[in-house]
Fold each of these.
Amino acid sequence: MRRHTRWSAWLFCPLLLCAATGRAAAQAQLPPNVVFIYADDMGYGDLGAYGARAIKTPNLDRMAAEGLRLTSFYSVSPVCTPSRAALLTGRYAARMGIANMHLSNVLTFQDSTGLPTDETTIATALRARGYATACIGKWHLGHLAPHRPLDHGFDYYYGIPYSNDMKPSMLKRMDEILEEPVQQETLTSRYTEEATRFIEQNGSRPFFLYLAHNMPHIPLFASEKFKNRSAAGAYGDVVEELDWSVGEVLVTLKRLGLDERTIVFFASDNGPWYEGSPGPLRGRKGWTYDGGVRVPGIVRWPGHVRAGRVSDEPLATIDVFPTLMALTGEPGGAALPLDGKAAAGFLLGRDASAPGNLYLFFDKEFLQTARFGRWKIHVARWNVQRYQAGAANQVNETLRTPELYDMSVDVGESYNVAASHPDVVKDLRRRIAETLRTFPEEVQKANADLLK
Amino acid sequence: MRRHTRWSAWLFCPLLLCAATGRAAAQAQLPPNVVFIYADDMGYGDLGAYGARAIKTPNLDRMAAEGLRLTSFYSVSPVCTPSRAALLTGRYAARMGIANMHLSNVLTFQDSTGLPTDETTIATALRARGYATACIGKWHLGHLAPHRPLDHGFDYYYGIPYSNDMKPSMLKRMDEILEEPVQQETLTSRYTEEATRFIEQNGSRPFFLYLAHNMPHIPLFASEKFKNRSAAGAYGDVVEELDWSVGEVLVTLKRLGLDERTIVFFASDNGPWYEGSPGPLRGRKGWTYDGGVRVPGIVRWPGHVRAGRVSDEPLATIDVFPTLMALTGEPGGAALPLDGKAAAGFLLGRDASAPGNLYLFFDKEFLQTARFGRWKIHVARWNVQRYQAGAANQVNETLRTPELYDMSVDVGESYNVAASHPDVVKDLRRRIAETLRTFPEEVQKANADLLK
């Protein structure tokens, strides 16, 4: 009954009604499908649409041309697990006691950490709205119950439950181990097959597909037909196969007449690691400079999101949850308060600006940097000199002298303007303190000097 | 007599004769003056002409528009001392036993290391050709005799004999200490005053001015009228003052009618350190990724070097010595064999390509990377994982698996293509081994695995 009420609300949404035509009109009572494609460790500069010259990504470039390309889209963490937790819940991982969840490269089956059971994922929330849900690919939020995808709102799971460099390397379908070790060469193509099959099987009902590729996280593997194809070595081959995969998903949606009924997102969980390009950004995976956290962000929804739009408005993965709630029915849907803000009006072109959220970037539970509007503040920049002197494991002995970068003219975070904008620093520190006070006590304690 | 013979050779150089007009014609028997302006730790992306948005550099941008802007110009070391040794001698510092000359931040007056006495600098060579020579600014090649500027071909010296973060901080004129500690706010403007005075006093004879600014090396200081002027904080103010300084030098040359008789170079000794922008390049000062070694490179010589030319041909500081020898008379001029190659034909537009030199980049005596044509090879890339794990002081325990980057499509050194170009790797390793075999035994020993 409750589900029915929500669909009725959807039915009377005037914006979507006027966009619905033909076959789509017949299904207009259905809220839109959602496909979120997540690359692993892909850099801001790895796609043609973002300036890559050595890698050809015609499908992603076309997807961008047919939708919205965000040039200031953030993952709120520079490493895998907290990024994924934040994307799926709309909340910072530092709230969940898993900021320290650095799964080691060799797993033990007693390792029972994972996304807490009281968190609500996009899958849980959309399933409550009648969606078929699937997670295909990398999970990395706990491989044992009650932390598996199946415990967190997904009807279906197929993939490696963690990173592709971790042992034991295994491919699972639901709870069944299909392969050990995984044949990684065909991983991307098998994920794609699973994804298109899921779409085919669920085209008549609303669905949420979370397609989280393991690539281009190392070790790099492409299938036979993509090997030695790019001008960017194994990394480029892998990205070109991911691009092909995106093309397959889009072709499937088109073939099934689901184009205008499906919102497709593309992003990466953090910046590039050893290989891969951060474009003009400073730093890489693991750093909270933008090279570690600013990622490609493409949204395609024909008839709803204007084609060919490019925006430099800051948005982040934490905003995806509330945005999807707004686009698929009523706001809400989560048991716990969200950090994200709904950007539905911005995506649909009703609002010129994004919601103007404050984005926080942590190293474990220690706040490092924040982005707000045109400003990026480093409240605890790693002490680079110590770092270079070999004290990388002492990164928490950080500098607490704020640095301020004006991202509107300094995308590479090269010029500290804190001294000439004390008012901005003060305002940002106030906003940061205000937000941190809503965090668990241990996070407040770790950042005590920011709360003074 | 010998000097006279050389000037006569110059007189009959047809190319220069046809370019000489008016007042310049009357002085055509004189070889061209040389002004080399060197910034300290300035990044590839810090100038408007190289993409900076937060910093305004109208004088350097105009200088580039009136001459040649090199987009693949290298300093052959990512740190100060070996960079300067290589620029002034046309030879790698690793040949000189001073690759390890990392002057500590606190000097002792017993520290008697420095540029060896058997090396020939540009100043020595040009003085032998009748030039007045001055070094104004940072030296950093030994502050005690026999390593001072005055021991290495310079008639005149004014400046801080080393970096501006070193103690005791002192300003010297010749051997006289003028100030201790140095008032750094007015350093750039005083260097500029000294430089223009030297030009005025020597306009009637050929001169070589080596104007080696201490800025924007930290600590950052700009004079009153440049403070808080830029949109890039203290770093930007300092760069804008350096830009003003370049403008003053160019205005002085114009006023004295020396424009067409003076080759002016602008470059930096290595990439940016904490602040400053490497543009789209990977890494910073201290790294042999291009962000540490590729620098702005501008050459202006009206009537000889075509205005508005931009070239991506690789060239480096080691090529400056032989190029200047060719442009000021006969090749040669150095007591020891050079690593650089003369690029006179390329600068003057007679040759479409630069000499195609192999450029080596060392960390101390350990070869790290090399650039040849479109390729950059990493023969001993720092083991980033160890580095991040805190083993930065063990950088010499390096990986010896070559990585290859195609700089023609991958300026950010993001995509290793070694596996798809084994022939290129083999050829480059052969060239590297061939060159390393000409190095002193201790350098060969340090790189033994590259000589197998």
Amino acid sequence: MAAMKWWGWGEEGVGFSHEDKPDLAPFIARAVGVDVGRKVSAPVRFGQLQIPDPQLPAGLRGALERVITATFISTDPLDRVVHARGKSLRDLIRQRSGELPRLPDVIVRPGSEDDVIAVLQAAVHADAVVIPFGGGSSISGSLEAPAGETRPVISVDLERLDKVLEIDSGSRLARVQAGVFGPHIEQQLGAFGYTFGHFPDSFEHSTLGGWIATRSSGMQSDRYGDIADMVKGLRVVTPSGTLVTRPVPSASTGPSVREMVLGSEGRLGIITEATVHIRRIPERRTILGYLFPTFGDGLAAMQDLAASDHAVSVTRVSDANETQFSFAMRVQPTLVDKLQSRLLRIFLRRRLGFDLNQMCISFIGYEGGDRHVAAQRRAVGRLVKRHGGLCIGSRPGVLYDKKKFDIPYIRDFLLDRGAAGDVSDTATTWSGLMRLYDAVVTAANGAFAQLAVHGYVMCHLSHSYHAGACLYFTFAFKARTNMTAEYELVKSAIQQAFVDNGATLSHHHAVGTEHAQWLEQDISAPGVVMLRALFDGTDPGKHLNPGKIV
Amino acid sequence: MAAMKWWGWGEEGVGFSHEDKPDLAPFIARAVGVDVGRKVSAPVRFGQLQIPDPQLPAGLRGALERVITATFISTDPLDRVVHARGKSLRDLIRQRSGELPRLPDVIVRPGSEDDVIAVLQAAVHADAVVIPFGGGSSISGSLEAPAGETRPVISVDLERLDKVLEIDSGSRLARVQAGVFGPHIEQQLGAFGYTFGHFPDSFEHSTLGGWIATRSSGMQSDRYGDIADMVKGLRVVTPSGTLVTRPVPSASTGPSVREMVLGSEGRLGIITEATVHIRRIPERRTILGYLFPTFGDGLAAMQDLAASDHAVSVTRVSDANETQFSFAMRVQPTLVDKLQSRLLRIFLRRRLGFDLNQMCISFIGYEGGDRHVAAQRRAVGRLVKRHGGLCIGSRPGVLYDKKKFDIPYIRDFLLDRGAAGDVSDTATTWSGLMRLYDAVVTAANGAFAQLAVHGYVMCHLSHSYHAGACLYFTFAFKARTNMTAEYELVKSAIQQAFVDNGATLSHHHAVGTEHAQWLEQDISAPGVVMLRALFDGTDPGKHLNPGKIV
């Protein structure tokens, strides 16, 4: 798997374009006051970067070379820059401007768990810092070494640990190495008729180990579970040896050490392998589009759905602002498309009494055997109707499915045009959802007003649970003077609205350094004491990704 | 809620009897060589117990009296004996013989979270030990103070914290105090049309806080989830303040502190309150009985069911030995019953080719709306048939449902007759289940043979998951010379077979002191390091239930 761009999302040569989306330019002009035709910023050239020499003591280098083939020990400048950070908006802004952080001194690419053990031992012996690296897609600052770090910094890139080792078809479990990327795990399992079913937005650029270390969620987690539900056995190289948890379905063995690894962001050790739930590729998989008169109607429908006997794979409802964005993203509509769309709008307005400015698009996914899917579709269709919703067929779902992994590229597109765009996700109870939504939108718009910037905030419900749901916010604004400071204010306003309204600081993007300031408000002071106790006692030498989470 | 017997299960005056079960006496004679008519042992009288005076320094007593009304501070001898231990078989044997442990010096019954905070502060200040007490039904030794404990020991009985405080019907969540007993939480929720749905065997004698502290499972956990899935928000009084986790459905906030409290057995603090999933009392609830030709057929059916699109509330399959026991437990069969039973046996043998000695009884439960339950029953019926199974209607399920909470009393009944009976539960993957079962049965029978005792081991699958299931073993034998030593050998053989065959040391009965010796073999040495780190860092003064788990 090729490394990500050092300055942006995804691989070199791939990017977001408005040119095949005729409605997008006017939408962006309206939403954030940006003329998409006018690029105002570009990343500095790589040659312009000031890259300090690596500080790799001869003893440590020797120890690494004794265990890892030289090809897999890199002090290459590009490699060091790519491994220095993740892809938070703050990361992108700084990388583009050439403002580099404390770079790792060396990148090692172990080829086995034994290699990982030897690397960690060498690091502890040399009093070095170890930062595990999966796909490098963190948007929470989980990958950057502390600014003042004086010890050698080793980035351990797990990309060579990329195999599905074993499939236990009777138990629907697979033993998988931690460095495997999303498409590659699906490809290896798919060859045997199985799927893992974990599809975060970062799917193409993130790894199993990264998903585990951040408590990731995917687009079909309503069916497959969050990563925390899907991972059973774990192998983690720690300073006191290799932690091995058994792939048992449930256990009463004290506080769950398996759960402690989930979300640990490299603070407890290096995840090398996991035994994970897999499922047969379903007979049928459909995502249907629906329209609701308002966001409130859509949320109420999802709430009812969660309380029902029905089983679905995806629940998603966009608010009115995101619905407008979604429509503006349409690729090359044909004349027939345009006509249909026009007729639909007339029907919605005149026959169903929709206010088209309030209308919200929703996707509900179905998976399983033909009979099961057919029965669920019918039952959910009736439920949606009771909330004033209308099914608009499978085409919008197919389009959504196609473009879903392209969305992260849009941040680079906006940065080129002087605008900041980012996401913040949270979760709360069903009863608190609408109040939370209103508070966050008010907070974001308040921040835009305070800064006197042209901004836009939009949201979708992305996952449903028994007692609540995830709200996933996207916001963008045209920067005025200092994009970083302005971003800081908007992002903080949103995060503070989360914790002030009983919600969590993050549903699936981890803590890192970006969210650490809200952690105590979320999990309370004794919760922070417990995390510190766990980290300090497991890694007394503070070699493992210091400064993250707490 | 009245306290349990100091010497056995349940309340005084309630016990197990064979007299209304005509087939039981001959079954027990065959299985463990015991004549039920001949009692050979009885608990010593309470008056015979040697009860040392409580060691409660005046300063500590004063501090407690300043916060808790005198009525709720007890040094009563019976109270101290009842709170000294749980109900493991080893506990029962020792209590009956008058061999008391280090007794708690005082029992306090706080009436509020503020009371709990004050008690913990007083305890820390006086360098005392605090052991939280729920229903006292632990069978893992989680409640006993260390033998050599020289500090004052305070048992904190949460029975006064027994209220459902708030129902959030929109989110299907209830805020509930930790000291509430099973029947009382159902009663309070039932008044509003809700159920918690957690029904462990100990249901009548255990509390919400106890379920959380031990990672409990209930009989309908296939639908409602294990307690770990049902508990969202938590309030826990710790030495560094009150831990508060938000009742959000899912979060990515580092290693989950919520999960650290689950299974913590009082080592991290005193749980005062939880916000838990609730559900509407379902329109329909049915448990159907099925017969399978062999245990292997029954397991294979449950495995297929777990991989299907069907949703059920209970999956249970007894092995042939437990099936025999189950039939022997029938209460007063009428002439019609006997005739039906005879005809069924003829039908099974002659038409279906069952070997009646291998035949296994199974229960599958269905809950939800009428249509849902009907559809699931039909679909599961077809699945069962494919595995050679036969539905025998709802009557066995009704009987099973009635008697399920009486089973724990049988240990006292056997002890009166010189026989030891106990349970051990575990979980593993579907693929490993049959090998595990064979290994455990072989280990138990090997131990019986080694001891030259007349013994019996039986098993049921009690919970199904995506990738595996829980196997719940019951074993009994007639003691020869030293019941405790003989029990130790049998129990150890079974537990060792669990960990030697890739299974967990306990599925839902916690670690305590009973299972601590297998913990490292289960979660590996670094797992133990992590638990120690967590406990030592959270409770540096070692005031909280010392010596449990690790």
